[in-house]
């Protein structure tokens, strides 16, 4: 009887080991063919879900898209390994994030550029030169995008920034001339379209403008797409350093930089999103 029990126990243990091994193999296979990527809803997630997902499926990959209206979590989750990649930020923001947060993220694909625009809030008519004294101007509160907004306001003659200030470090404290006494108000970038009527005008990121149904053609002013400086604002796919040569990451990059994606962007966004590949 004892011998029978020992044999039964050994058989059960062998079965358990076999099941566990099979489960681990299946999990490893899933890890190799499943790509988890975070993205801003518009246009990033739209591009991934509408085009990239199908391109990857033809190659045997499953693309899981996790949407965020946030500029921090996608990077920290990619750094920790909870995500394979993210697609929401431009080069300058990525470099600044790595420098200030101690992360080790790397751009593996240069995808598109979204021109910043100045959109009307309560100031419905008239040129920017005629904006009333003391008007409230809404700008993003995150470092690189705040600087970008300030440079656009300077380009339009509304303010003057200190000499030597760059698009990576300017803040509203660097405004040395404000002839209209504008009340420059910092808000989370995603909130500006929702709060636009609280200001005379707002400077809005391209993706958030699109998400709010705002057209670049309706902007009072926008960045010059031919400016050499726009390269630093190209939106990228980022992964943790060391993962860039994984087969699934290479497949992801090839799918995003495909002719199908370029055609979709050009046909869908009417110049508010500009492919750079």
Helices and strands, in N-to-C order? HEHEHEHEEEHEEEEHEEHHE
- Strand order across the biggest sheet? 2-1-3-12-4-13
Mean pLDDT: 89
Largest sheet: 6 strands, mixed
Oligomer: single chain
Helix content: 25-40%
Q: Using only CA atoms, what is the Rg?
A: 24 Å
Report the uncertain regions. 2-8, 10-28
Strand portion: 15-25%
Number of strands: 13
The termini sit apart by: 73 Å
Query: What's the tally of helices?
Result: 8
Structural class: alpha/beta
Described by the principal axes of the CA atoms, the overall outline is globular
Descriptive key words:
six-stranded mixed β-sheet, 277 residues, 39% helix, single chain, five-stranded mixed β-sheet, alpha/beta
């Amino acid at each position: 009887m004892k011998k029978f029990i020992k044999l039964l126990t050994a058989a059960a243990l062998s079965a358990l080991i076999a099941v566990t091994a099979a489960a681990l193999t299946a999990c490893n296979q899933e890890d190799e063919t499943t790509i988890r990527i975070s993205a801003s809803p518009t246009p990033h997630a739209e591009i991934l879900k509408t085009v990239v997902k199908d391109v990857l499926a033809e190659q045997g990959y499953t693309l899981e898209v996790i949407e965020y209206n946030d500029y921090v979590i996608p990077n920290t989750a990619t750094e920790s390994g909870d995500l394979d990649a993210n697609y929401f930020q431009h080069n300058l923001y990525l470099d600044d994030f790595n420098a200030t947060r101690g992360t080790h993220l790397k751009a593996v694909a240069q995808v598109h550029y979204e021109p910043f625009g100045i959109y009307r809030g309560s100031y419905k008519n008239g040129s920017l030169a005629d904006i009333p004294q003391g008007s409230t101007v809404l700008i993003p509160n995150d470092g690189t995008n705040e600087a970008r907004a300030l440079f656009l306001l300077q380009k339009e003659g509304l303010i003057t920034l200190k000499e030597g200030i760059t698009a990576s470090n300017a803040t509203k404290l660097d405004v040395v001339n404000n002839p209209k006494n504008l009340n420059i108000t910092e808000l989370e970038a995603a909130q500006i379209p929702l709060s636009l009527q609280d200001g005379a005008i707002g400077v809005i990121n391209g993706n958030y403008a699109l998400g709010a149904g705002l057209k670049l053609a309706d902007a009072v002013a926008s960045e010059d797409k031919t400016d050499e400086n726009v390269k630093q604002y190209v939106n990228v796919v980022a992964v943790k350093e060391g993962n860039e040569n994984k087969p699934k990451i290479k497949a992801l990059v090839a799918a995003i930089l495909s002719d199908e994606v370029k055609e979709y962007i050009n046909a869908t966004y009417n110049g508010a999103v500009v492919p750079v590949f």
